[in-house]
């Protein structure tokens, strides 16, 4: 029988949930909604929603969101890829997303090293999953059995998801009656 099997071309994603002090996420949600009333929509991949400028890292109120991102990046991720160097990751950009009912994000990639999302507010119901697309373009040539599937992630308040920036992804339409609020980021 086969005794020389290998899993090749794996793509690691990192996910974790952080407990914040009571009221913190509500305060962040309110701040982002207020910003959306005065700041222009960046309109990168979000349709029917709103995206802030990508420099939210300059505000003090995001420190408690940035710190766990950088901790995971500069411990777990840096350790996993240590053969490529040990220069710490730096935050390149951070922006907020408001996905109103029916809003979604088209399939896209980011031009950095690590990208991710943090879920600030997730309404009841189907508010749209993050879907990571299988990067192996030729996998679709298989007629039946050896195909892979895209990897959907259900949003959950207080949860962070980090992934390689080259990994194509999209967000399904928000079918709930509420606004899903998230923050996206890039690390270099």
**Lateral strand order in the biggest sheet:** 1-9-6-11-4-3
Proportion in helices: 10-25%
**Computed structural class:** alpha+beta
Q: Give the count of helical stretches.
A: 2
Q: List the secondary-structure elements in sequence, H or E.
A: EHEEHEEEEEEEE
The fraction of residues assigned to DSSP E strands is 25-35%
The residue-averaged pLDDT reads 94
How far do the termini sit from each other? 44 Å
Q: What is the tally of beta strands? A: 11
The description of the largest β-sheet is: 6 strands, antiparallel
Uncertain regions spanning at least 5 consecutive residues: none
From the alpha carbons, calculate the radius of gyration and give it in angstroms: 18 Å
The coarse silhouette is: globular
Please outline what is shown here.
The protein contains 2 helices and 11 strands. With 188 residues, it is an alpha+beta fold.
């Amino acid at each position: 029988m086969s005794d020389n099997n290998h899993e090749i071309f794996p793509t690691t994603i990192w996910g974790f949930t952080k407990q914040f002090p009571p009221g913190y996420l509500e305060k962040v949600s309110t701040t982002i909604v207020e910003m959306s009333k005065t700041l222009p929509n960046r309109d990168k991949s979000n349709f029917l929603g709103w995206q802030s400028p990508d420099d939210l890292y300059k505000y003090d109120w995001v420190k408690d969101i940035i710190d766990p991102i950088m901790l995971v990046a500069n411990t777990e991720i840096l350790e996993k890829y240590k053969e490529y160097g040990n220069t710490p990751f730096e935050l390149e950009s951070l922006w907020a997303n408001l996905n109103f009912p029916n809003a979604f994000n088209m399939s896209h990639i980011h031009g950095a090293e690590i990208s991710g999302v943090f879920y600030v507010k997730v309404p009841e119901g189907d508010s749209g999953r993050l879907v990571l697309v299988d990067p192996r373009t030729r996998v679709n040539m298989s007629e039946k059995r050896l195909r892979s599937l895209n990897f959907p992630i259900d949003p959950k308040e207080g949860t962070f998801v980090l992934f390689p920036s080259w990994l194509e992804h999209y967000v399904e339409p928000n079918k709930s009656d509420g606004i899903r609020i998230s923050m996206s980021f890039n690390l270099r």
